[in-house]
Backbone:
């Protein structure tokens, strides 16, 4: 049991530090292995109570949540943080009006209370009032313009409303503040790709390429580059020259080779550690994707050179020769 | 005579996908066997939905990964056709099939090689561990005309193969938290070693 307690604490700490949302696991670990031995917890006790409280609210285990809240309230009376947790408890019971009251009072009392204002946005989202949630969040961002989590959330709210231009604008703010973050480039490229115009497809291609440059193992960026470059290569728009189409076709072939290489590597790893069935399926899937990726890229190539795209060594040499993207 | 017959594997994968990500919308496609070229009277027999592919649990309305996924599905499941779409909405009380899901479904329906296609919406409120009912709602696009609107199908239009057994299997899967081992396309893109065809899970469900 002692070993179970330590392992459980280590796993809870890992989940806490990585910011993973695995609420059911947290509450199960707490209830099965940790809750009876809280006297053994050191300084991390209160961080753990908070973590379990929020996870318990997330999966509707209100008794566990209440047990944690009681301990936290005793230890930190008159705390604004605990007050906010009480409001979140009301949210979990679907008592959104009462929760909103508390958040509004808290944000009026303390203008720097960013978390209560964000909870107000969350409540509006829970009510399905996305337009009001967007308005509230844009107001928040005027005061707290460096809150990256909020910009990302706003981008998602705009995407839900299919407002791609504004969603892209939010990602632009994020890229400006974090130009080396490959995920922001990739998400921006996905939004531009979805917009579907010729200009936006060219932009998508550039930003997918930049994401790949920042993280060569980003599969979404590689697939995106393959598709976007493929679309640019077969564009019938007057503004695209044959030189730019050839360049796009080259990029698509390179991306296809990269994808194929990743799948081959994954297929061989899978063959070592898994049973015959699943290794067969991932091998088969891998080789199918590799074939398909190469076929796609070959369709884009005006010269349709069959041999060029298939050698991984060419793929590895090519990054240096990629044209500047931005 | 029902228009569709959904097999337990398909039902299980849809519900497990929704349970794996209760805090976000999820979607996926429905698969049925391609009809053989010499089959006659195919429009009168129910279409058998034998499997699903869970796709995404984030950013359902972005196109590139959807296109990549559909490419891979067509390459892998050569003897099967994509005959429909399923979605579980983010909010508990949201039972609307409209929005980006309807848009994706329309594209699938236009390209479906079989005479009919299906949109399955997960009834979030009806999911519970006891599994007393199949928590799914069915829609289809209106056949004639340009209307593009979705109409709700009565439950009689869609039969579940061996429904009681299916519910029992589903209850067992939920208790065992089998959804933790389900792999959707988003998971696969994060780690391409993960098997998005979920062949192991399918074996477990069939036994």
Residues:
């Amino acid at each position: 049991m002692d070993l179970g307690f330590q392992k459980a604490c280590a796993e809870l700490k890992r989940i806490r530090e990585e910011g993973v949302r695995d609420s059911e696991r947290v509450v199960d670990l707490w209830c099965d292995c940790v809750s009876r031995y809280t006297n053994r917890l050191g300084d991390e006790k209160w961080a753990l109570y908070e973590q379990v409280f929020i996870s318990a609210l997330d999966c509707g285990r209100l008794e566990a949540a209440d047990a944690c809240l009681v301990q936290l309230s005793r230890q930190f009376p008159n705390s604004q943080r605990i007050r906010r947790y009480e409001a979140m408890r009301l949210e979990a019971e679907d008592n959104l009006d009462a929760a909103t009251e508390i958040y509004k009072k808290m944000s009026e009392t303390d203008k720097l209370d960013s978390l209560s204002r964000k909870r107000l946005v969350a409540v509006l989202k829970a009510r399905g009032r996305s337009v009001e949630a967007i308005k509230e969040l844009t107001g928040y961002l005027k005061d707290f313009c460096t809150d990256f989590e909020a910009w990302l959330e706003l981008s998602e709210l705009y995407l839900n409303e299919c407002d791609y231009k504004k969603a892209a604008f939010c990602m632009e703010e994020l890229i400006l503040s974090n130009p080396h973050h490959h995920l922001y480039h990739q998400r921006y490229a996905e939004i531009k790709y979805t917009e579907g115009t010729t200009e936006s497809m060219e932009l998508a291609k550039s930003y997918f390429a930049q994401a790949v440059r920042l993280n060569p193992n980003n599969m979404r960026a590689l697939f995106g580059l393959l598709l976007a470059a493929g679309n640019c290569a077969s564009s019938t728009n007057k503004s695209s020259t044959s030189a730019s189409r050839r360049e796009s076709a080259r990029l698509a072939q390179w991306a296809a080779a990269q994808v194929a290489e990743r799948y081959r590597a994954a297929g061989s790893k899978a063959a070592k550690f898994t049973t015959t069935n699943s290794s067969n399926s991932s091998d088969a899937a891998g080789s199918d994707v590799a074939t398909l990726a190469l076929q796609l890229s070959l369709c884009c190539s005006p010269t349709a050179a069959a041999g060029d795209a298939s050698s991984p060594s060419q793929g590895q040499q090519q990054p240096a020769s990629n044209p500047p993207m931005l | 005579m029902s228009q569709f017959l959904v097999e337990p594997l398909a039902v299980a994968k849809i519900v497990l996908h929704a349970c794996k990500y209760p805090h976000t919308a999820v979607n996926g496609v429905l698969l049925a066997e391609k009809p053989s070229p010499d089959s006659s009277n195919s429009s009168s027999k129910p279409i058998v939905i034998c499997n699903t592919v869970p796709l995404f649990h984030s950013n359902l309305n972005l196109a590139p990964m959807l296109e990549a996924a559909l490419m891979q599905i067509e390459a892998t499941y050569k003897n099967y056709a994509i005959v429909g779409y399923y979605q579980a909405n983010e909010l508990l009380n949201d039972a609307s099939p409209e929005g980006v899901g309807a848009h994706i479904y329309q594209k699938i329906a236009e390209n479906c090689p079989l005479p009919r296609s299906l949109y399955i919406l997960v009834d979030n409120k009806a999911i519970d561990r006891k599994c007393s009912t199949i928590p799914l709602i069915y829609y289809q696009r209106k056949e004639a005309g340009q209307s593009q609107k979705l109409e709700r199908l009565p439950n009689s239009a869609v039969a579940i193969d061996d429904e009681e057994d299916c519910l029992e299997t589903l209850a067992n899967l939920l208790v065992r938290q089998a959804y933790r081992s389900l792999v959707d396309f988003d998971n696969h893109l994060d780690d391409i070693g993960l098997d998005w065809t979920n062949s192991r899970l399918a074996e477990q469900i069939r036994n």
